Amino acid sequence: MKILITDSLAKEGIDKLRGEGFEVSEQIGIGEEKLVNIIPSYVALIVRSGTKVTEKVINAGSNLKIIGRAGTGVDNVDVNAATRKGIIVMNTPDGNTISVAEHTISMMLALSRNIPQAHLSLQKGQWNRGKFMGTQVYGKILGIIGLGRIGSEVAKRAKGLGMKVIAYDPFIPRKRAEELKVNLCELKELLLQVDYLTVHTPLTPQTKNLIGDKEIRLMKKSVRIINCARGGIIEENSLYQALKEGRVRGVALDVFENGKPFGSPLMELDSVVLTPHLGASTEEAQRKVAVDIACQIVDALKWNKVRNAVNNI
Ligand code: NAD
Ligand code: MLT
Predict the structure, then answer these.
(1) DSSP line for 164-194
(2) What is the whole-number distance in angstroms between the Cα of residue 286 and the centre of ligand 2?
């Protein structure tokens, strides 16, 4: 049985698949047209976020049984089309949770203390201590939208830094928030209070543009906003306007509406910290998601044991 991998996957996962007797082909970064041509030969396709698994690709997959996402978000896979064709879509929901939570906290601290800006300034030969006056996070209010796996780990770490944590998530039980010592509230109530806002929901039709101009105007002018979830949950144009008009203090983004931020006016602002989708980019997370997806695919194809399917039924 042949398995195709189209985004880079840690060696440990590939070794596992080959060790179980699968023929693995790595064709990193191929486009839709090539994928459509070659997909009929494969029973499973493994991707991260770089490959768009469109309806056209899915319909061409005459032997395709599984689409495996080595990571969490499945917004790059047409899950409805796969479900209609009876193809299992599975992700690895736990593999990169801690890494993304750590990246979120790093972004919050980088914003608070102007670390990237100060580093760049020093590299240019400037010694400008006054320009980079920061702010403590201790005692500040962090608002988390989406208190799932990553949101919960962010909450624990923020508590360790002495922050007060509040959250908006209409789908989690109140008991879970109590365990985390996080106050659940309505979105508007959260926005009115926060010093820092971070989003950790999936990108869905309901969460697209969840935070736009109207919501930003409810927040304090000193607010700092972080998005390490998916581009498009917070409207980039509204963020830009708010930063330009001094209605938001700083913004840190790991993810972007158009995948990459090139050409975005946000790139020109000093009050912005950007990383190229690095939330899950740690050795530990990449090893874990690769091994997890390999084991899940082996279990499904060899033993009919399906885990972490995300198909809509
Ligand atoms: P999760 O499913 O454990 O948690 C998501 C939470 O969002 C859930 O508790 C859910 O109830 C909540 N939610 C859903 N819709 C909501 C809404 N409309 N309003 C408020 N809350 C809502 O997922 P997770 O593992 O915590 O991951 C969250 C997202 O982070 C993923 O979907 C993915 O897009 C993103 N992510 C990014 C990176 C990265 O590299 N930057 C890595 C991993 C995951
Ligand atoms: C995810 O959803 O897991 C992240 O976006 C990380 C990745 O791109 O694999």
Answers:
(1) EEEEE-TTS-HHHHHHTT-EE--HHHHHHH-
(2) 10
